[in-house]
Amino acid sequence: MNHFLDIHTTSGADLHAIIDQAKVMKQARQGRPKGMADDEQPLAGQMVALIFEKPSTRTRISFDVGVRQMGGQSMVLSGKDMQLGHGETIADTARVMSRYVDLIMIRTFDEAVLHEMAEYASVPVINGLTDRTHPCQIMADIQTYEEHRGSIKGKKVVWAGDGNNVCASFLHAAAKFGFDLTFTGPSQLDPEDEFVGLARQAGSKVVIERDAVKAVEGADLVVADTWVSMHDSQSSKERRHNMLRPYQVNEELMSHAKPDALFMHCLPAHREEEVTSAVMDGPQSVIFDEAENRLHAQKAVMRWCLGV
Ligand code: CP
Ligand code: NVA
């Protein structure tokens, strides 16, 4: 049984195999109506629980559709309507759910909840985002990069803005996929030392550069994310915006990257805040391919978890 808890806790061979399978499964669906089942039905007879303690559009819909395309059944559960951590321990919820379902995906706040769920569940558990990481997003992003530009090994990725949960998973991926990452943002919002250290230990070059223009020089990929994540307090919004404004990804900033650099954003995006519409809708942007690939990458993750 394989849990998919983080990029760095999954072997490089398995990560590559998952992405390769995602590409094959995507190819097999070309031109098909979205509601049509896949030819292969590896999840036939399987029940998947999707638990959300935070809002979601992409994760929720792509997991749900992915399960159905592979012949399984899914239930979308709101954390606040469950006894999760309120009426009973996470461990007991995990034990109970394991008697009903074959796979659990959870989006939560504290990653301790994810880890407790995985420790006590007797079925695989997938991380659908925590305050600290978002591994499913990065699997889709690596697939997207490879589809457009080939291998990401040795490439320069620039993260502009808040060193948040998505940035952390990019640092995990730097270690596993062998790319370099330059972070550009205010020092108060640097990624955690643990994530930077892991990438450096694995041989990736990780640079912290306060000057956004210098940071993007030679970039193969520029990535942005919201300035206020779901776990950040709304009262910090104005302070964060003031700190992060110099790191907006706009056409001027993109002009300092390589001419064929790609732009990514996990979405939802705040147009004219962390990124301008000109970049989001411009020729270097692959944001909607990333969103689509959530579906394909997660289908492959689920198959890996279940060994089917
Ligand atoms: N990128 C992402 O995870 O989007 P949702 O929050 O809409 O699921
Ligand atoms: N950093 C964002 C990502 C949303 C998909 C958040 O955690 O809100």
UniProtKB/TrEMBL annotation:
Pfam families: OTCace, OTCace_N. Pathway: Amino-acid biosynthesis; L-arginine biosynthesis; L-arginine from L-ornithine and carbamoyl phosphate: step 1/3. Its EC number is 2.1.3.3. It catalyses: carbamoyl phosphate + L-ornithine = L-citrulline + phosphate + H(+). Keywords: Cytoplasm, Transferase. HAMAP family: OTCase (MF_01109). Residues 153-304 form the Aspartate/ornithine carbamoyltransferase Asp/Orn-binding domain. Belongs to the aspartate/ornithine carbamoyltransferase superfamily. OTCase family. This is Ornithine carbamoyltransferase. Gene3D superfamilies: Aspartate/ornithine carbamoyltransferase. It comes from Pseudophaeobacter arcticus.
